[in-house]
Amino acid sequence: DYIVIIQLGAILAVFVAFYSRLRDLVKGMFCVDQASVRLAVAIVVAFVPAALLGFLFKDAITAALFSIEVVAAALLVGGLVILVAEQALPTARSAEGDEITTIGWRTALTIGLCQCFALIPGTSRSLATILGGRVAGLSHAASTEFSFLVGLLTLSAASVYKMWSLGPALTQVYPAGPAGVGLLVAAVTAFVSVKWLVGYVSRHGLGVFAWYRIALGGAILAYLALS
Question: Which contiguous run of DSSP H or E holds residue 3?
Fold first, then answer.
């Protein structure tokens, strides 16, 4: 369950990376700013489908889908889906002003339903939600930023639930020293990854990740077939 500590590091990294956005969002909600309230509602709507499915079917998902074969197949199929989507979807034009704050509940629901696929091991949550944003008509830049905002809520909820489940055992199994090192390393690497990913996807799209997934998934399946 060391993953809880890693997730806390990732949460911290996303919070720092999008600090200005989150600060304005909180201030806007206190002031009942329509754009901020709309964004907050969109984040919650996108969060709910996967959270609900994960809570209701977590045991069944763990029992049925956690295998090397499923992970490899998800990598391969996900890569093919990304390639098709990148070719089929038109290049979205950014909305006038701040595109993120124009996201309505229908767009958010589309992204949230796409996030449900990330419950399948080997399916990247961020790529699923970015692709969901593109399907809903958002630009690469807006899809990527919104993906991480939804991810912040998703990871936070999952971490709180896991820590609640573990209770005092968490601090007993992982002392403060090793836990602190793991959290710091996770936070730094996640921050660098987030900043790089936002910039790269905004400029180049998702194609390179599709080929990476196809190559890795295909290699694993070939290895399993020959073993």
Answer: helix 3-17
Give the torsion sign (CA, 206, 143, 81, 74): positive
pLDDT tens, position by position, 63-112:
888 899 999 999 999 999 999 998 888 766 555 568 898 999 999 999 99
| Secondary structure letter of residue 89 according to DSSP | S
Tell me if 198 sits within 8 A of 145, measured CB to CB. Answer: yes
CB 133 within 8 A of CB 147: yes
**Contact predicate 13/191, CB 8 Å:** yes
Helix (H, G, I), strand (E, B) or coil at 160: helix
The structure's pTM equals 0.84
Q: Convert the pLDDT of each residue in 197-222 to its tens digit.
A: 888 888 888 889 999 999 999 999 99
**Which tokens belong to 46?**
């996108």
Contact present, 40 and 102 (Cβ < 8 Å) = no
